[in-house]
């Protein structure tokens, strides 16, 4: 499997003195499948947590279509 590409990285405040860190990465699993990984570290996850989703090429096209039509993300390409 290839190295993930980081597409998002941010910190957010969850309490007066507590900050959580979040990172979103994409990795190619197969020619027509990508995996999106989100890792959150901080008090919410205690030691950390991660989840992932496999997306086929045609599913991504549908996701883009839904994001454009339902969420108004008109700057996405097909």
Automatic annotation (TrEMBL):
Lineage: Archaea, Methanobacteriati, Methanobacteriota, Thermococci, Thermococcales
Highest taxon above the source species: Archaea
Protein name: Uncharacterized protein
